[in-house]
Amino acid sequence: MSFEDKKIAFIGAGAMGGTMIAGLVKSKLVSPEQITAADPHEARGQELVDSLGINFTTDNVEAVDNADIIVIAVKPQYIESALHELRGRVDSVGLILSIVAGIKIRDIVEDLHNSRVVRSIPNTPAMIGEGITVWTATYEVMDEYKDIAKSILQAMGEELYVADEHYMDMATGLSGSGPGYVFLIIESMIDAGVRMGFSRAQAEKLVLQTIKGSVLYAQQSGTHPTILRNQVTSPGGTTAAGLHTMEKAGLRSAIADGIWAAYQRSVELGASDD
Q: Where do the domains of the chain lie, and which CATH numbers do they carry?
Protein backbone atom coordinates (compact mmCIF):
# COMPACT_ATOMS: atom_id res chain seq x y z
CA MET A 1 0.00 0.00 0.00
CA SER A 2 1.31 3.40 -0.94
CA PHE A 3 -0.06 6.92 -0.95
CA GLU A 4 2.87 8.07 -3.08
CA ASP A 5 1.78 10.69 -5.60
CA LYS A 6 -1.87 10.17 -4.61
CA LYS A 7 -3.97 13.31 -4.36
CA ILE A 8 -6.69 13.11 -1.70
CA ALA A 9 -9.74 15.38 -1.66
CA PHE A 10 -11.89 15.70 1.45
CA ILE A 11 -15.42 16.91 0.83
CA GLY A 12 -16.28 18.14 4.30
CA ALA A 13 -13.67 19.06 6.91
CA GLY A 14 -15.69 19.04 10.11
CA ALA A 15 -15.00 16.95 13.20
CA MET A 16 -14.73 13.55 11.50
CA GLY A 17 -13.11 14.79 8.30
CA GLY A 18 -10.63 16.87 10.28
CA THR A 19 -9.77 13.88 12.48
CA MET A 20 -8.97 11.78 9.41
CA ILE A 21 -6.86 14.54 7.87
CA ALA A 22 -4.91 15.08 11.08
CA GLY A 23 -4.34 11.35 11.50
CA LEU A 24 -2.99 10.97 7.97
CA VAL A 25 -0.67 13.95 8.23
CA LYS A 26 0.60 13.25 11.75
CA SER A 27 1.29 9.60 10.93
CA LYS A 28 3.23 10.79 7.88
CA LEU A 29 1.30 8.49 5.60
CA VAL A 30 0.84 11.45 3.29
CA SER A 31 2.36 14.89 3.01
CA PRO A 32 0.11 17.89 3.67
CA GLU A 33 0.49 18.96 0.03
CA GLN A 34 -1.31 15.81 -1.10
CA ILE A 35 -4.50 16.77 0.72
CA THR A 36 -7.11 19.30 -0.34
CA ALA A 37 -10.08 19.85 1.95
CA ALA A 38 -13.30 21.53 0.87
CA ASP A 39 -15.68 23.02 3.42
CA PRO A 40 -18.07 26.00 3.39
CA HIS A 41 -16.61 27.31 6.65
CA GLU A 42 -13.49 29.32 5.83
CA ALA A 43 -12.47 29.65 9.48
CA ARG A 44 -12.37 25.88 9.81
CA GLY A 45 -10.30 25.63 6.65
CA GLN A 46 -7.81 28.22 7.85
CA GLU A 47 -7.43 26.33 11.11
CA LEU A 48 -6.48 23.17 9.20
CA VAL A 49 -4.12 25.09 6.93
CA ASP A 50 -2.37 26.71 9.91
CA SER A 51 -2.11 23.54 12.00
CA LEU A 52 -1.45 20.91 9.33
CA GLY A 53 -0.34 22.74 6.19
CA ILE A 54 -2.91 21.18 3.87
CA ASN A 55 -4.63 22.86 0.94
CA PHE A 56 -8.12 24.28 1.44
CA THR A 57 -10.96 25.58 -0.68
CA THR A 58 -14.63 26.32 -0.24
CA ASP A 59 -15.30 24.86 -3.70
CA ASN A 60 -16.00 21.12 -3.88
CA VAL A 61 -15.34 20.99 -7.61
CA GLU A 62 -11.95 22.65 -7.20
CA ALA A 63 -11.04 20.18 -4.44
CA VAL A 64 -11.59 17.10 -6.61
CA ASP A 65 -9.64 18.40 -9.59
CA ASN A 66 -7.15 15.63 -10.50
CA ALA A 67 -7.92 13.77 -7.26
CA ASP A 68 -7.07 10.06 -7.00
CA ILE A 69 -9.07 9.55 -3.80
CA ILE A 70 -12.18 11.35 -2.59
CA VAL A 71 -13.36 11.18 1.02
CA ILE A 72 -16.97 12.29 1.45
CA ALA A 73 -17.34 13.55 5.02
CA VAL A 74 -20.24 16.01 4.84
CA LYS A 75 -23.23 15.90 7.17
CA PRO A 76 -26.11 13.76 5.86
CA GLN A 77 -28.31 16.79 5.13
CA TYR A 78 -25.68 18.11 2.69
CA ILE A 79 -24.86 14.89 0.86
CA GLU A 80 -27.38 15.37 -1.96
CA SER A 81 -26.04 18.77 -2.97
CA ALA A 82 -22.43 17.60 -2.63
CA LEU A 83 -22.99 14.60 -4.91
CA HIS A 84 -24.85 16.79 -7.39
CA GLU A 85 -21.88 19.17 -7.59
CA LEU A 86 -19.45 16.31 -8.24
CA ARG A 87 -21.57 14.49 -10.82
CA GLY A 88 -19.66 13.87 -14.04
CA ARG A 89 -16.38 15.11 -12.58
CA VAL A 90 -15.09 12.04 -10.72
CA ASP A 91 -15.76 9.16 -13.13
CA SER A 92 -12.10 8.07 -13.20
CA VAL A 93 -11.27 8.53 -9.50
CA GLY A 94 -9.72 5.37 -8.05
CA LEU A 95 -11.54 5.45 -4.71
CA ILE A 96 -14.56 7.21 -3.28
CA LEU A 97 -14.76 6.70 0.48
CA SER A 98 -17.93 7.77 2.30
CA ILE A 99 -18.33 8.20 6.05
CA VAL A 100 -21.81 9.72 5.67
CA ALA A 101 -24.44 7.97 7.80
CA GLY A 102 -27.41 6.44 6.01
CA ILE A 103 -26.15 6.87 2.45
CA LYS A 104 -26.07 3.58 0.56
CA ILE A 105 -23.40 2.60 -1.93
CA ARG A 106 -25.85 2.50 -4.82
CA ASP A 107 -26.83 6.14 -4.18
CA ILE A 108 -23.21 7.24 -4.51
CA VAL A 109 -22.59 5.04 -7.56
CA GLU A 110 -25.71 6.31 -9.34
CA ASP A 111 -25.01 9.96 -8.57
CA LEU A 112 -21.29 9.97 -9.35
CA HIS A 113 -21.20 7.35 -12.13
CA ASN A 114 -18.28 5.70 -10.34
CA SER A 115 -18.60 2.21 -8.84
CA ARG A 116 -15.28 2.22 -6.94
CA VAL A 117 -16.90 3.03 -3.59
CA VAL A 118 -16.16 2.26 0.03
CA ARG A 119 -18.90 2.88 2.59
CA SER A 120 -18.00 3.16 6.27
CA ILE A 121 -19.71 3.65 9.63
CA PRO A 122 -17.42 5.35 12.20
CA ASN A 123 -18.46 6.29 15.74
CA THR A 124 -17.84 9.37 17.84
CA PRO A 125 -14.71 8.16 19.73
CA ALA A 126 -13.06 8.45 16.30
CA MET A 127 -12.70 12.15 17.08
CA ILE A 128 -9.94 11.29 19.56
CA GLY A 129 -8.51 8.47 17.47
CA GLU A 130 -10.20 5.77 19.56
CA GLY A 131 -13.15 4.87 17.36
CA ILE A 132 -14.13 1.72 15.54
CA THR A 133 -15.17 1.98 11.89
CA VAL A 134 -17.02 -0.77 10.04
CA TRP A 135 -16.57 -0.65 6.27
CA THR A 136 -17.26 -2.47 3.05
CA ALA A 137 -16.26 -2.02 -0.57
CA THR A 138 -17.72 -2.67 -3.98
CA TYR A 139 -16.24 -5.39 -6.15
CA GLU A 140 -14.73 -2.74 -8.39
CA VAL A 141 -12.43 -1.31 -5.69
CA MET A 142 -8.94 -2.57 -6.44
CA ASP A 143 -6.95 -4.26 -3.67
CA GLU A 144 -4.50 -1.37 -3.62
CA TYR A 145 -7.30 1.05 -2.89
CA LYS A 146 -8.86 -1.24 -0.27
CA ASP A 147 -5.53 -1.07 1.57
CA ILE A 148 -5.55 2.71 1.21
CA ALA A 149 -9.12 2.90 2.54
CA LYS A 150 -8.10 0.78 5.52
CA SER A 151 -5.19 3.10 6.30
CA ILE A 152 -7.37 6.21 6.04
CA LEU A 153 -9.95 4.74 8.43
CA GLN A 154 -7.22 3.70 10.86
CA ALA A 155 -6.56 7.42 11.31
CA MET A 156 -9.71 7.36 13.46
CA GLY A 157 -8.88 4.23 15.48
CA GLU A 158 -9.69 0.58 14.79
CA GLU A 159 -11.47 -0.71 11.68
CA LEU A 160 -13.42 -3.80 10.73
CA TYR A 161 -14.02 -4.88 7.12
CA VAL A 162 -17.27 -6.69 6.30
CA ALA A 163 -18.03 -8.42 3.03
CA ASP A 164 -21.60 -7.21 2.53
CA GLU A 165 -23.36 -3.88 2.92
CA HIS A 166 -26.22 -5.37 4.95
CA TYR A 167 -23.83 -5.47 7.92
CA MET A 168 -23.78 -1.67 7.91
CA ASP A 169 -27.22 -1.41 9.50
CA MET A 170 -26.05 -3.84 12.19
CA ALA A 171 -22.94 -1.75 12.76
CA THR A 172 -25.09 1.37 13.07
CA GLY A 173 -27.14 -0.25 15.84
CA LEU A 174 -24.17 -1.73 17.70
CA SER A 175 -21.07 0.44 17.32
CA GLY A 176 -22.38 3.55 15.58
CA SER A 177 -25.04 4.19 18.24
CA GLY A 178 -23.01 2.36 20.89
CA PRO A 179 -21.39 5.41 22.51
CA GLY A 180 -24.87 6.69 23.34
CA TYR A 181 -25.62 3.54 25.34
CA VAL A 182 -22.30 3.75 27.15
CA PHE A 183 -22.84 7.43 28.00
CA LEU A 184 -26.26 6.58 29.47
CA ILE A 185 -24.67 3.89 31.67
CA ILE A 186 -21.96 6.35 32.73
CA GLU A 187 -24.56 8.98 33.55
CA SER A 188 -26.62 6.50 35.58
CA MET A 189 -23.59 5.34 37.58
CA ILE A 190 -22.56 8.93 38.33
CA ASP A 191 -26.09 9.77 39.50
CA ALA A 192 -26.02 6.72 41.78
CA GLY A 193 -22.72 7.89 43.24
CA VAL A 194 -24.16 11.33 43.95
CA ARG A 195 -27.22 9.74 45.56
CA MET A 196 -24.93 7.81 47.93
CA GLY A 197 -23.11 11.00 48.95
CA PHE A 198 -20.15 11.56 46.64
CA SER A 199 -19.77 14.96 45.03
CA ARG A 200 -20.54 14.89 41.32
CA ALA A 201 -16.86 15.46 40.51
CA GLN A 202 -15.81 12.56 42.73
CA ALA A 203 -18.46 10.25 41.29
CA GLU A 204 -17.50 11.19 37.74
CA LYS A 205 -13.83 10.44 38.38
CA LEU A 206 -14.64 7.08 39.95
CA VAL A 207 -17.01 6.01 37.19
CA LEU A 208 -14.95 7.13 34.21
CA GLN A 209 -11.78 5.46 35.46
CA THR A 210 -13.70 2.31 36.42
CA ILE A 211 -15.14 1.99 32.93
CA LYS A 212 -11.87 2.90 31.23
CA GLY A 213 -9.93 0.40 33.34
CA SER A 214 -12.51 -2.33 32.83
CA VAL A 215 -12.42 -1.93 29.05
CA LEU A 216 -8.61 -1.95 28.94
CA TYR A 217 -8.52 -4.99 31.22
CA ALA A 218 -11.00 -6.84 28.99
CA GLN A 219 -8.98 -5.97 25.87
CA GLN A 220 -5.60 -6.89 27.29
CA SER A 221 -6.65 -10.06 29.09
CA GLY A 222 -8.43 -11.53 26.07
CA THR A 223 -10.75 -13.26 28.53
CA HIS A 224 -14.48 -13.74 27.94
CA PRO A 225 -16.58 -11.09 29.73
CA THR A 226 -18.49 -13.78 31.63
CA ILE A 227 -15.27 -15.02 33.21
CA LEU A 228 -14.16 -11.48 34.05
CA ARG A 229 -17.52 -10.79 35.68
CA ASN A 230 -17.30 -13.99 37.71
CA GLN A 231 -13.82 -12.98 38.90
CA VAL A 232 -15.22 -9.92 40.66
CA THR A 233 -18.42 -11.59 41.91
CA SER A 234 -17.84 -13.25 45.26
CA PRO A 235 -20.63 -15.54 46.52
CA GLY A 236 -22.99 -13.54 48.71
CA GLY A 237 -20.95 -10.39 48.15
CA THR A 238 -21.69 -6.82 47.12
CA THR A 239 -21.18 -7.31 43.40
CA ALA A 240 -23.48 -10.34 43.43
CA ALA A 241 -26.17 -8.27 45.14
CA GLY A 242 -25.82 -5.44 42.66
CA LEU A 243 -25.83 -7.72 39.61
CA HIS A 244 -28.84 -9.67 40.89
CA THR A 245 -30.85 -6.46 41.20
CA MET A 246 -29.79 -5.26 37.74
CA GLU A 247 -30.63 -8.60 36.12
CA LYS A 248 -33.97 -8.69 37.94
CA ALA A 249 -34.74 -5.23 36.56
CA GLY A 250 -34.03 -6.48 33.04
CA LEU A 251 -30.78 -4.63 32.33
CA ARG A 252 -29.41 -7.30 29.98
CA SER A 253 -32.59 -7.56 27.90
CA ALA A 254 -33.06 -3.76 27.89
CA ILE A 255 -29.61 -3.28 26.36
CA ALA A 256 -30.14 -6.05 23.80
CA ASP A 257 -33.60 -4.75 22.88
CA GLY A 258 -32.27 -1.19 22.58
CA ILE A 259 -29.52 -2.26 20.18
CA TRP A 260 -32.03 -4.26 18.14
CA ALA A 261 -34.35 -1.22 17.98
CA ALA A 262 -31.49 0.95 16.70
CA TYR A 263 -30.67 -1.66 14.08
CA GLN A 264 -34.30 -1.88 12.97
CA ARG A 265 -34.53 1.90 12.77
CA SER A 266 -31.43 1.98 10.57
CA VAL A 267 -33.05 -0.56 8.25
CA GLU A 268 -36.24 1.54 8.13
CA LEU A 269 -34.35 4.72 7.32
CA GLY A 270 -32.50 2.97 4.54
CA ALA A 271 -35.72 1.56 3.13
CA SER A 272 -37.33 5.00 3.11
CA ASP A 273 -34.72 6.09 0.57
CA ASP A 274 -35.68 3.34 -1.87
A: 8-168 (3.40.50.720), 178-270 (1.10.3730.10)
